[in-house]
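Something for you to look into today, if you have time. Could you write out one complete protein record for me, on any chain you like? Leave the record below and I will have a look.
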Amino acid sequence: MPFPRQTYHLVKDIMRDFNNLVHKVSMNRGFLNEHLSSVARSDEFQRNYLQIFNTVADEGVRQPISLGIHRSDYMLHDANDGSALEPKQVEINTVASSFAALSERVSALHKFLVERVPAAKLQSENLPENLPVSGICRGMALADKAYKEQERPDANQRHVEFYLWEHHRIPVLRATLAEVLEHAALDASSKRLTMKGMEISVVYFRAGYSPNDFPTQAEWDARLLLERSAAIKCPTAAYQCVGAKKIQQVLACPGMVEKFVDEDSAKRIRSCFAGLYALGDGSVEADRAKEDAIANPSRYVLKPQREGGGNNFYEEEMKKKLLEGNNETLQAYILMDIIQAPSIPSVFLRNFQAIETEATTELGTYGVFLANGERVMFSECVGHLLRSKQATSKETGVAAGFGVLDSPILY
């Protein structure tokens, strides 16, 4: 799918800024509690994560090293009828940032096809290199190395597992949260985590971002056990709290980003923010945003504190939620301006049928970050994900059935 070259490199460069911002915010306990407490009152899922975060903070965090594998998603915003396309952030994911391996393979497939079937407007040098798996595994390997130096060691995800073994000789043990509670053990003094005879250096969460991942209290008990451990968590409960939509909205408020990063970084980050609005807090701004969204529902999207796609509310559904909700329940949501993405003529292949249609795209950049307290050990943008969808579809989630994996061709 055509994508502006300058914008592509801009959002890749900004990924380091977002890596740093997530980490800085995660270390400010007061900030997270101040802005998530209102959400937690009516959102049990967010309340449980905030409780895990506070419980471990009260007990004393045993592992100061944090590993972040983030993905920041953007859409092009057509503010002036195509004269100036600006990248606007849809969200930042701090847990289970999916599709790195499959995106890498799609990029390789498209490069192969372009080189195999020459076309005047399709040059392989305009397909940017995309190797997120090696970057993600490098971050995990560095985390494993950092843990050991302390002396305290699905189809998409299988590629990460195989790469870690082939290139770093690091074995991977896969387990559900319920299996963790049944088989894992935590040393009382050192907080070393062991499972099936193996000491665990890094815990990488491929689940835990949805209430569906916690059908019983056992799963929550397992998540707390892992957070208490000396293993390096990806993400920590703090990082996951930073990924809440509420924190995204608060950081967009004047002066908030500037509390955590320098002026130049704040300016780059702020350039990507769309309009984001609080709900239900009794402020004039929140009341005004709610009233305008009810009067002009096509201009906004209502977002809960959820990941995974298919959770947002649009137009009449959004209007109904706003009219029926009270201040307490509405604080579990944020309002966001609809990003006016330009549509591009495209062809989708579904059920062996080619469908000519207008399409829009969403570009995500993968960031890997490793730090020991204030000391940054590694921070890079390691690859990208492009998803395309029919322009008439509101959502872009691939796993949720709305979009398809694609590749950018730069112009």
